[in-house]
């Protein structure tokens, strides 16, 4: 038996679970999964590269959690119930302490949703590259898309904006956030490393939202996708953006550019008809998540996000914006 198989058996096999009758997990050339009658599968994939998607200093346990969380966040944005996941790891070396903590981080989050690891691939490479695909399901035809926003809808989001970006500053450039309370920064760093995917909110929104997206590349960039896909514009009210204590301190001193563009927030942003806003707030409350109205869907004109402060248009330059994160 080669070390590769021992490694899979030791660190990854424990994350599998007994599968339903006729299904198959780790061990064969492929996994077999069943889709409940009348349902569709939703499949998402996200890759995390060391020093690109997370600082090299991030604990392996947090890396495992985050790798699954960012995928579950994509499933949540579609409104899917998570079913299982597959994992491809490429590592420069197989360090047992790293693998143990990484797989524990995956297991921490997977355990909450009772989802098994069903397969994957394990290779050696010069750089750490981690790819996870998650499978979810939902009743046929009920997925939330980026394309359903209607003029007159209210734009809403869950949680707070900007903590991922501020947390990243706290890790990589602490001198830039010295003016923020250390406890507030700690909360932002936890959000960066261990985001909470809004899975149950996403499932509940299927019945209520006209469109949804998860905030991973920065709210402006992500809402820009909704504008393009739905053929609308969005008027975003800056004073309504939900901020944590760290976020408020940052905005007071440096403005909105970072919260609007930094990304790594993994909150849901969605549009709902005006008549549904109260219902959405009530449903979210019952799930322990707070949601906020942050803007309005308006006529297309340029199919883009327009910024407002207290109802008055604000020029992009005024908030010193750079575009959202781009790899190329
Ligand atoms: P093959 O050579 O047929 O591609 P592998 O040797 O890559 O098979 O993998 C053997 C089994 O272990 C397969 O069922 C595969 O899905 C599983 N596996 C490999 N790497 C991982 C991993 N990182 N996590 C979970 N399962 C894995
Ligand atoms: Mg293989």
What does this structure look like?
With 328 residues, the chain is α+β, with helices and mostly antiparallel strands. It contains ten helices and eleven strands. The protein has helices at residues 3-12, 60-78, 96-113, 163-172, 182-193, 199-205, 219-230, 245-254, 257-261, 277-286, and strands at 39-49, 81-91, 117-124, 129-139, 154-158, 211-215, 233-237, 267-272, 291-298, 305-309, 312-314. Strand 2 (81-91), helix 3 and strand 3 form a beta-alpha-beta unit. The termini are far apart. Adenosine-5'-diphosphate binds at residues 8, 12, 26-29, 87, 89, 117, 119-122.
A few lines on this structure:
The chain is an alpha+beta fold. It contains ten helices and eleven strands.
Main attributes?
328 residues; alpha+beta; seven-stranded mixed beta sheet; four-stranded mixed beta sheet; 10 helices; globular; binds adenosine-5'-diphosphate; binds magnesium ion
């Amino acid at each position: 038996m080669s070390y590769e198989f021992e490694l899979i058996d030791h660190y990854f096999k424990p994350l599998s679970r007994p599968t339903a009758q006729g299904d198959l997990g780790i061990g064969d050339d492929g996994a077999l999964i069943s889709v409940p009658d009348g349902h569709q599968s939703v499949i998402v994939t996200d890759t995390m590269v060391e020093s690109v998607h997370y600082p090299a200093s991030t604990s392996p346990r947090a890396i495992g959690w985050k790798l699954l969380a960012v995928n579950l966040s994509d499933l949540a944005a579609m409104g899917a119930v998570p079913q299982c996941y597959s994992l491809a790891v490429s590592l420069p070396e197989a360090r047992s302490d790293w693998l143990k903590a990484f797989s524990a981080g995956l297991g921490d989050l997977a355990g909450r949703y009772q989802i098994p690891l069903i397969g994957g691939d394990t290779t050696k490479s010069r750089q750490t590259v981690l790819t996870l695909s998650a499978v979810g399901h939902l009743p046929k035809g009920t997925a939330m898309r980026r394309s359903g926003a209607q003029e007159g809808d209210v734009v809403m989001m869950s949680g707070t904006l900007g903590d991922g970006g501020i947390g990243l500053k706290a890790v990589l450039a602490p001198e830039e956030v010295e003016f923020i309370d250390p406890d507030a920064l700690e909360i932002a760093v936890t959000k960066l490393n261990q985001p909470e995917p809004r899975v149950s909110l996403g499932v509940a929104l299927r019945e209520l939202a006209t469109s949804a997206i998860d905030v991973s590349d920065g709210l402006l960039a992500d809402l820009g996708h909704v504008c393009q896909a739905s053929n609308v514009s969005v008027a975003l009210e800056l004073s309504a953006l939900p901020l944590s204590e760290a976020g408020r301190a940052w905005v007071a001193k440096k403005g909105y550019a970072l919260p609007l563009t930094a990304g790594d927030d993994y909150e849901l942003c969605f549009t709902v008809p005006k008549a549904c806003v109260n219902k959405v707030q009530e449903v979210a409350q019952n799930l322990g998540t707070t949601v906020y109205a942050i803007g309005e869907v308006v006529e297309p004109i340029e199919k883009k996000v327009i910024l407002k402060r207290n109802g008055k248009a604000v020029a992009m330059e005024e908030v010193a914006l750079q575009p959202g994160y781009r790899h190329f």
